[in-house]
Amino acid sequence: MKTVEDYEKIRKAYYVERLSIRAISRQMRYSRKLIRQALEDAEPKGYQQKGARQAPVLGSYHARIEELLEDSEKMPRKQRYTAHKIYQLVQAEGYRGCESNVHTYVSQKRRARKPRSAYLPLEFDIGQDAQVDWGEAQAEINGMRQAVQMFVMRLNYSKARFVVAFPFQKQEAFFEGHIQAFHFFGGVPRRITYDNLKTAVFRILEGHHRQEQRAFSAFRSHYLFESHYCTPAQGHEKGGVESDVGYAQRNFFAPIPKAKDFAELNAVLHQVCLNDMQRSVRGENRTVAALVSSFELLSIPLVLGNSVGIDTMATYLYTIGVVGVNKDQGAVAAVAVLIVLLVTGLVYLQTKLVSLERRFVTVGGKATRPKAIDLGVWKGIVSFFVGLYVVLGIILPLGCIVLTSFVPFLSPFMNPLKMLTLKNYQGIFNSPAYFQSIVNSINISIFAAGIGIVFMAVAALIAYRSAFKYRNAVKYMALYPRAFPGIIVGIGFLWAFLLVPGLGSLRNTIIAISIAFIMRYLPLGFSAVSPAVLQVSDELDRAGRVAGATWLGTIRHILLPILKPALVSGYILLAISFLKEYSTALFLVAEGSRVIGTTMLELWKQGGAEPVAALSTIQMAITAVLIIGARKLMGVKLHE
Amino acid sequence: MNNDLIIQGLTKKFVTSNSVAIEDVNITVEEGQFTTLLGPSGCGKSTTLNCVAGLEQPTAGSIRVGDFVMTDTARDLILPPEQRHLGMVFQSYALWPHMKVFDNVAFALKLQKRPSDEIKQRVQESLVLVGLEELADRYPFQLSGGQQQRVALARAVVSRPKVLLLDEPLSNLDAKIRESARIWLRGLQKQLGITTVYVTHDQSEAFAMSDMIAVMSMGKLQQYAPPEEIYERPANRFVAEFIGVTSFITGTIQKVEGKRGTLKLASGELLTIRKESKSDHAWKEGETAAIAIRSERVEVLTEGAAERENTVKANIASRTYLGSKWQYTVETSGGSLRLESTDAIQGDSLFMYLPPDSIILLAG
Ligand SMILES: Nc1ncnc2c1ncn2[C@@H]1O[C@H](COP(=O)(O)OP(=O)(O)O)[C@@H](O)[C@H]1O
Ligand SMILES: [Mg+2]
Question: What is the ipTM of this complex?
Answer without folding.
Answer: 0.85
